[in-house]
Design goal:
alpha+beta; Alpha-Beta Plaits; nine-stranded antiparallel beta sheet; ACT-like_dom_sf; amino acid binding; ACR1-12; repeat; ACT domain-containing protein ACR
């Protein structure tokens, strides 16, 4: 059975966590989040992504030599940013097995980004502890839909997770930059990259992207999509260990994407995600 509880108070006198800089400039020119999906949900609904990649898990030093199942694997860290489930707030879910605390330091760090955590819900089930945060802009009281702010939220949470749980850095792409331990393996970008566009309705299409994670990925994906005059209405961005999964509702002139435009979008994203890092640094 799963047990859930609501954190009613947010401690504001905790140690301030340094705001993470976002180096990418703002290229946001779409209607991202301005037309939220009208679905009323008490708790955020999880999206079933069509593709999955196996993430290597670190083995515990306590593993027995006879290969028995007594070893304790480090759980896969997950950060889910959801703009579809709640029309009034951006929903963020953080999971790291049963190792997470109350995340009060993380909530304090988010406040330093000019955000409010209006609700925090903790659920415990067989897969571990799931902390769900409903976040709004402190200045407007509205949900967060700017790509740079979303990426700042993601990096802040991951940075805090690595700080308080250093073992998580071996399973996160960000561990190579911020962590005490380097990732055990790196994903092959050609194998990890999956891009699909589906017909969702006459007014919009559903874009699914799966790729090796990297800092600034949310900003860059939205930039590429909007540069070919496609609007991003809403979506979800999941960080699962070394892997990033994104689902965006997209449209062109308030219509679903026709097949040739779907192909252009897929090709543009695939080129960006697979190109060498040396080429990225030259820009």
């Amino acid at each position: 059975m799963a047990s859930c509880g609501i954190i009613s108070g947010i401690h504001t006198n905790l140690k301030a966590i340094e705001k993470l800089p976002i180096s990418s400039p703002c290229f946001f020119r779409s209607s991202f989040g301005l037309e939220p999906i009208q679905r009323i949900c008490i708790a955020p609904k999880r999206l079933a992504f069509p593709e999955s990649t196996i993430i290597p898990k670190a083995s515990s030093a306590a593993a027995v030599e006879d290969g028995s199942s007594q070893e304790t694997a480090v759980p896969t860290p997950k950060v889910i940013i959801d703009l579809d489930s709640n029309p009034d707030a951006t929903v963020v879910e953080v999971t790291f097995g049963d190792r997470l605390g109350a995340l009060v330091d993380t909530m304090s760090a988010l406040k330093n980004l000019g955000l409010n955590v209006v609700k925090a819900n903790v659920c415990l089930d067989s897969s571990g502890k799931h902390t769900t945060l409903c976040i709004t802009n402190a200045s407007t009281g509205r949900k967060v839909d700017d790509p740079e702010q979303l990426e700042a939220i993601r990096l802040t949470i991951i940075n805090n997770m690595i700080e308080f749980h250093p073992e998580s850095s071996a399973l996160l792409a960000m561990g190579e930059v911020f962590g005490a331990y380097q990732p055990n393996q790196k994903l092959d970008v050609d194998i990890a990259t999956h891009i699909h566009v589906y017909d969702d309705s006459p007014e919009r299409s559903l874009l699914y992207v799966e790729a090796a994670d990297r800092p600034g990925l949310i900003v860059d994906l939205v930039k590429i999509i909007t540069e070919i005059n496609i609007d991003v209405e809403s979506g979800e961005f999941d960080t699962e260990g070394l892997l990033a999964k994104a689902k965006f509702h997209v449209s062109y002139k308030n219509k679903a994407l026709i097949k040739p435009l779907q192909q252009v979008l897929e090709n543009s994203l695939r080129y960006y995600l697979r190109r060498p890092t040396t080429e990225e640094s030259s820009f």
